Amino acid sequence: MRMQTRGAALALLCMGMSLTAACGGGDESAGADDNTITWWHNSNNEPGKGYYEKVAADFEKANPGVQVEVTAMAHEDMVDKLAAAFQSGDLPDVYMERGGGELAAHVDAGLTRDLTDDAAAEIEAIGGSVAGWQVDDRTYALPFSLGVVGVWYNTEDFKSAGVEPPTTVAEWEQVNSDLESAGITPLSLGAGDKWPAAHYWYYAAVRTCSQDVLTQAVADLDFSDPCFVEAGEVVEDFIRTEPFNKGFLATPAQEGATSASGLLATGKVASEMQGHWEPGVMQGLTDDGQGLGDKTGWFPFPAVEGGAGDPTAALGGGDAWAVSQDAPDTAVDLVTYLLSEDVQRGFAENDMGLPTLPAATDAVSDPVLADLIKVRDEAPFVQLYFDTAFGESIGGAMNDEIALMFAGEASPQDIVDAMQQAADEQG
Amino acid sequence: MSLPVHPIVVPPEDVDDPAPGERPAAPAPGRRPRPRRATSWRERLEIVVFVLPALALMALFIAWPVASAVRMSLYRWRGFGPMDDFVGLRNYERVLTDEVFTQAVVHNLVIVVLSIAIQLPLGVGIALLLNRSMRGRGLVRTLIFVPYVLAEVIAGVIWFQLLIPDTGVVDGLLSGAGVTPPDQGFLGTPGLALWAVFGVLTWKYLGLAILLFLAGLQSVPEEVHEAAQLDGASWWQIQWRIVVPLLGPTIRTWCFLSMIGSLQLFDMVWVLTGGGPANATTTMASYLISQGTQRSNYGIAGAASVVLFVIGVAMAALYQRFVLRRDTQVER
């Protein structure tokens, strides 16, 4: 009996100890050692993965005694792990921020380091693109890739239907109807994931609202300007022309050959509106790894007649390197190194994204991506995806309601109401 | 959560407190109150020591998460930073007035009712058929049980592919048979999506019902069959009047499992539709995931999870009280 008691007590003690060990063990990665930097990124395929390993090794060589622990993860895994890291407050030293309301919330919670003074030269060099990563005029992350959304199309399909990329939404509807008559499904849409559908509304809002209205709405979270309802009406009319693939309400964005991107990559539809990552996604969805190959075409979201927005303004977003609040100072050095001309050029040469440093943009080798950079840099402004800009809470409510409109169950006014309600509840 | 509570019965101690009025000066020889009491304490200690690890694990993995969900539900919290914005019951108000959530509750209840109304007769029927000796019985039994063994996500992905509009196998078969499949596909049409999900769930879980019922049928004594046959009962009469009633405890247990599973339904919905289209297949669990991890409204997700918990516990308790009690009483 006594022996049993003692054994049980010992077991309990061990259990308790292993628990405290598990709970307290995470701290080693942050702050415990000023010469070790942890860095999470999502380039887990070649050539990106190998390139970043080389970058880390170069940085270690230039800074003797400093060690960089690189963790490459699939994007979704990284997002999940980051969410857990934010909850526990135990963040990697260098990580990715998408900007907007999400970043503002992290800054508000004191999790992200202010880089305004420590990286002044790089911020200056990047220029206007940092705007999405600023909170109250302070810069908290350095964007290393910034892309724009547009319509990717199959040039062969357009040729065989005898249509040209449209410049107004009315023309676009005509193009779609001509494609339909030629027996080609005009557009694919991954509305099952909601955000691809929401991009239509975002882009329409960029065309119906002036830049001032949009900037003010992001700052005040006040959506009373009638241009937001107008945007919904543009999209609603567009949906009524039924240009999308069958079953678009349940179609995923980019998983598998039957996803929206897969349908374009395999020639089942003529076009799809998507971000700058589309060629890379399509390559992964075809057996030959080519995607649409040299049949890939791109045009921007067409102008809305009578809209107050600039027809050359773009919708987009990107990724930026941020440093967590408790990270050692060398982490800031790593981030500034990541935004150096050398690293940005290498990033561009490997087609890992659209570099933000003007001195590196000419290094992009893919002709389609090079064109996209031109569009981005010639745009008077690049509006950050609204769900990112407004933050997850408003963004989620907005995307849900937009998806409802695509299912014919919400009106343009409902979308604005849902956004305003979510904003008001956020307080 | 729903396990029947078996109170630990401690043997009553000998009444060694003397009746008032006859207080002996010293313990009478032959009675041993002190040692007896010590043994009892030791027994108690023993129980405590043996139960403690289990209790500690339950506290850590059940009680603590439940308590922290309740706490979370009283705050407005983004999932990081300090939890200091106390909002009282406002999250509950928002959850209960949110049409998406009330729809989700309805969807859960629809699945609960449909599962029992459709899978039960189907399962009992097939089990009765498979209980007869026939050629290839083992093969049929295996085939029916295969879907249950498949991982839920894998089954979901397979059915998602089968149900793709136009190019999917199901649409192909239907058009081949001259039926026009829905334009948006079964999973993309709000009016059909929940039925499609239920269809897949039935395919997936019918095997378990049949397996349980077959096991239950083994306990129906052969003599009963013989006696009934001697009395001139037909096969149908035997099944309906004798076998099915004897299968009662198994059926009631299966109903309970099915009900709890339907209330917690998440994986299949998430894989097939993500709760869409137009929230047509949202369940309570998918609602709290989309509010919590996707929108960072952890307070609302906490409130939704507490509501789900309360509904689950209430239904489980009522079921125990009014349906399962008979069975447990028989056992005792």
Description:
The complex is a heterodimer of chains A (427) and B (332). With 427 residues, chain A is of the alpha/beta class. Chain A folds into 2 domains: 30-147 and 317-383, D-Maltodextrin-Binding Protein, domain 2; 148-315 and 385-426, D-Maltodextrin-Binding Protein, domain 2 (3-Layer(aba) Sandwich). Chain A is built from 18 helices and 12 strands. The model of chain A is unreliable at 1-32 (pLDDT under 50). Chain B has 332 residues and is mainly alpha-helical. Chain B contains 13 helices and no strands. In chain B, helix 3 (99-130) runs parallel beside helix 7. The longest helix of chain B is centred in the first third of the chain and has 40 residues, at 33-72. The chains are: A alpha/beta (427), B mainly alpha (332). The A-B interface holds A 1, 4-5, 8-9, 11-12, 15, 19, 80, 83, 86-87, 89, 105-106, 108-111, 191-194, 246-251, 256, 258, 391-393, 395-397, 400, 403-404, 407-409, 425, 427 and B 42, 45-46, 49-50, 52-53, 56, 60, 76, 78-82, 94, 100, 161, 164-167, 183-185, 187-190, 193, 273-274, 276-279, 290-291, 293-297.
Q: What is the terminal-to-terminal distance of chain A?
A: 60 Å
Largest interface: A-B, 46 and 43 residues
Number of domains of chain B: 1
Q: How is the quaternary structure best described?
A: heterodimer
How large, in whole angstroms, is the Cα Rg of chain A? Answer: 24 Å
State the CATH class of the largest domain in chain A: Alpha Beta
Instruction: State Rg of chain B.
Output: 27 Å
In CATH, the architecture of chain B is: Orthogonal Bundle
Secondary structure: helix percent of chain A: 40-55%
Q: What is the string of SSEs of chain B from the N terminus onward?
A: HHHHHHHHHHHHH
CATH-assigned homologous superfamily of the largest domain in chain A? Periplasmic binding protein-like II
**Mean pLDDT across residues of chain A:** 88
Helix segment count of chain A? Answer: 18
Signal peptide (chain A): 1-23
Pfam family, one (chain A): SBP_bac_1
Keywords (chain A): Signal
InterPro entries (chain A): Bact_solute-bd_prot1, SBP
